[in-house]
């Protein structure tokens, strides 16, 4: 107590020294810091009783602080690892196809990357300090298990940083001939290192959920056994795809915001097109994400029944209803953007596609209604009495995995067809086999949809293992077959097609920009939600079944309070990203104001990591 | 009102269907308000999406609303506008009051029917060989101890079932025991309603704690009998 009083006196002495604008803020920060310092000392366990196992921080709580910082680090990392994948793909498209606008797009994405990279590293550093400070016993244990991979991670980080700087700073210098090939190679290596930077820490996180512990062998053998745990690869794949989705939608949101604010027709066209590419990449990843998620959940359930039921049937199962809502908004938002694209970018096409849009929308909503229907319903006593329990006798069947898997596959099919419709809009087939080709595609789609539904219904009447191993897998394979068949057939048809209406970029209404922003927010919320689910499924264990959580926080927060933290993380991440974008585009605004190089490639100078010098400014 | 009429009719029709038609379909029951609100929200979202997908439809949909809220020389509608502007905040206030005021009604339940089992039960497998004799014996035990509530047909409609809320589990329903491993059932039968963990609050289960009366071997046999009689299979990974 005396330490706190002493702190108060120190604050009183320090406050007059802070003057001018923002003095109150500095004063508050100072006060918080001084008051917190002695409390941290108080919160730490007595050294006399043995080594310190936990430390705490007042008001916020160590767990909440670690939760927030870890989530923000993960979101930033997702963005930083997802963006280079399609930045590099865009560069390759520009390199092979000669379309310079893809190169411009790639460079604009990479420009955002440099600022985001340093922010991610910053949050990673803060997280590490917090973990070491608050959870010394756990970190000791994890260090003991994973020591060799810590070193590997440091090496990867160095290589990634060098490659990123070469890739970004060398952009203008490596534009022609062999140098461009070298630049493309650098982009490939950037993604290569980024992949490993993701999967190495994934091993640490998945080890906590599904540990494999061996007591014998060398440090490397023990680390390798712990790394290759049952949920490591499922989460690697899931996060890889999710990162692409996050990167795509955030770039879409960036384009959406820029589209809403730019004045010139040229800029509107550019950001409209950029929004389209961002949404396309997001949707492309989104189509594969449910499959990866299903595989992950299957592995968790198989690894441990308790963890599987906690997630899918126990107290965390409500998260999956929230997840369905968020994914539903994402699917609706992505399709809405495609449909807006048809009606606004391709003049005169509204009447032609309106009926198809209605059918797709109704199908999507029906699927969503099934996905969002819980098995055990929220009901008053009176309502439950009328139903005879928490399960509705008729709609209860919609609450289990067979129904959910079926509708998620159908939603993927519908969204894919939405894209195909957009792709074909404004074009007239001229190939002699066009009618036959379209009939084949229609038949494939109808038969595939029927097969998915039949397997879904049949799934209720077979043992769970048959449904999981064969029926659900078959549903996924059917959808993949449709995508892999219809895509080349459509491309072949369009190769000889006549363009009847030219695509008009820059004509989208403001709500298109807002829908891009909404999609990005949904993805971020989804990641915060699932982050909580994955972490909470360990319940009162730091390392499941191996190291018990004995801190005062060895309980799962209620869903309501957890959702507050999720919302806070989402909001904070959006603010951080907005700041990064603002910083990254500061140079553009300055140059535009000075009236130079409007049509050039944007060469903003991100203050946090430095910017690529303009060609014109190079000596 | 042309473009607004259809959405309003659709919303009303959906409400009528969910509230007054669906419950009377054979085998159905009234829907809880949470589900009705969910489906109506989906319908409303669909309407907004479809009506704003093009400039023409958006103008036709939003135009009358905008004119009603901001237009001039509306005649009798002007009074209605003020009515709406007064009534809507009052409605929101009333809803907020209703959802936060102290009430003597019990709160809505979000009961976890299948809470996670304790760790010591998760790795168990049925030690009793799956032979016709053992299955038959299991069905016999089931008839003696379980069927009064869970029913002779394994459908949760035993003679005592009507005395319980929630009703005893229907094993013939593919969304109950078919989703679970045998070890889960072993835990639930052995420990009963009183053995439910915190997660299973408010512990609404009249299931007896059968470990007091039945040896483990009988419980495993009952489990085999239940699955066989209900024509279901337990969740396995092989």
Question: Could you walk me through the main structural features you see in this protein, from its secondary elements to its overall organization?
Answer:
In chain A, a hairpin with a 3-residue loop joins strand 3 (541-543) and strand 4. In chain A, helix 8 (232-261) runs antiparallel to helix 9 and helix 14 runs parallel beside helix 16. The relative contact order of chain A is 0.10. Chain A contains 19 helices and four strands. By secondary structure, chain A is mainly alpha-helical. Helix content of chain A is 74%, strand content 1%. Chain A folds into two domains: 2-43; 62-426 and 501-595, no CATH class. Chain A has a two-stranded antiparallel ribbon with strand order 1-2. In chain A, strands 3-4 form a two-stranded antiparallel ribbon. The longest helix of chain A has 39 residues, at 265-303. Chain B is mainly α and 238 residues long. Chain B has two domains: 2-100, no CATH class; 119-229, Cytochrome c-like domain (Cytochrome Bc1 Complex, Chain D, domain 2, Orthogonal Bundle), CATH 1.10.760. Chain B is elongated. The longest helix of chain B is centred in the middle third of the chain and has 25 residues, at 76-100. In chain B, helix 1 packs antiparallel against helix 2 (33-51) and helix 6 (132-150) crosses helix 8. Chains A and B meet through helix 10, helix 11, helix 12 and helix 13 of A and helix 2 and helix 3 of B.
